[in-house]
Amino acid sequence: MQTITLNVEGMSCNHCVNTIEKTLSGLGATGKVNLAAKTVEVSYDESGLSVEAIKEAIEDQGYDVV
Q1: For burial by CB atoms within 10 Å, which of 3, 21, 37, 47 has the most?
Q2: Residue 46 is inside which H or E element, if any?
Q3: What is the DSSP string of 23-43?
Q4: Do 49 and 26 contact (CB within 8 A), yes or no?
Q5: pTM of this prediction?
Q6: What is the band of 22 on the pLDDT scale with cuts at 50, 70, 90?
Q7: How far is CA 42 from CA 15, 32, in A?
Q8: In angstroms, rounded to a whole number, what is the distance separating the alpha carbons of residues 43 and 15?
């Protein structure tokens, strides 16, 4: 398991948290959102999922990974 922390802009409420965590779950990853810090800590299996795929999935939900 690999763990990374992404800076994500555009998150402001619990709906944002739920959307991102559900999106990551759908990829087979787990995410822990910190609204105050505007970060998402993602744990994933690097043999089956890339950082780019994770970023793309979050951005597809309308957030900006910076």
Answers
A1: 21
A2: none
A3: HHHHHT-EEEEETTTTEEEEE
A4: no
A5: 0.94
A6: very high
A7: 18, 7
A8: 21
